[in-house]
Protein 1
Amino acid sequence: MKLQWDLPLSSDGIDTELGDGTAVKIRPISADDGPALDASFKRMSPRSRYLRFFTIRDELGPAMLENFTDIDHLLHRAWVVIDPATAGDTPGEEHGIGIAVARLIETSTPGVAEASLAVIDEYQQRGVGRLLLDLLTSTASIAGFEKLRFETLWENRGMRRLLGNLKAEHNKELSDPSVLVYDLPIQESEDETIGALYEILRWIAASGDDSVSDDPTETVLPNQSA
């Protein structure tokens, strides 16, 4: 059953369940979430970090954590998903593990927003991605965006071919030899847009070549600016 979002989400967020029955909270990210974001990053595998940031990175650092959490929620929107049942003594996880982050960032191009999604490895293939893709597309539609922008590594041939098949526009002006930029039109039917995003995630979940994951809905949606 599709979740009915009351947008924009209040600071308290909403409580819901994943497909396997795990109770989670989804709320807008706050300026106090730096430790939580840092803890989540450290739970990601090196491969997930690479797909997310296009580089080998062992930590985010204070400046990046501030940039990711101290946002205006207008030009830069972001949400976190928390598993309250996992609350513990680890810094940033006192209220539960941060299991996922989704972002929508308005670009300088009218009607275009950069979209990103990251789910920590141990919670992949459990329905987190479905919730956040729905949130991203619902928010983008309400905000009046016409296209979602994605970046992919040139080496990811399958991803490049898929974006072409989905009629995403290759933005040659913003691309460089190593990172390619594509703009995906938001369909008149929100379900069609979500379906296209699922297919994108299927390729991102793969190992970076032409193989495909069994589950298209759980992994990192790469974008360096979020």
Protein 2
Amino acid sequence: MHPARSPFTVAIAGGSGSGKTSLTRALVGRLGPLGCAVLDHDSYYRDLGHLLPAERAATNFDHPASLENELLAAQLRELRAGRAVERPCYDFSTHTRLAATRRVEARPIIVCEGILLLAVPELRDAFDLRVFVDAPADVRALRRVLRDIVERGRTVESVVEQYLETVRPMHERFVEPARETADLVLSGQHPPHELAEMVLATVHGRMEH
């Protein structure tokens, strides 16, 4: 009798607006809720409730230090050991962490999405497959503006200011260099379901060895 296989971990990294979330959703749609579990790096932003609202808004959210990477790494270890975790819940409109958490059960495949997953060595080394979703800078910028306005209640001015002050420079400093550590580099301009099939083909190939 073969021992139970540990969950296979997949990192979906890339610049903000590159298409990571669309790919992750396509993977979930392909695998189903029993086939995979999802963690998003954004849920691990540090709680800024102790700061004034203006101070929170001035935080560089695109630097690795803005995220509780050690907690994500610990929870990835728990999931790989077959144990469920309580994932944090973050409120982007107030830059604070909610008291409630979300239970994530261990599944055969663990998908984790975030711009900085490959830029943090402790996280990068926790994945069996590292995927980088690439897209031109103008496409990423436009997608981010739309997302932050619609989903996060931001103004156009605040999104553009943040993009110029932190998003672009941090992308150039941390995100883009980490592209070199990826096992797969995919174009975020291709249909997500096609990208998902490419990722799953690689996952299944590696799981068979």
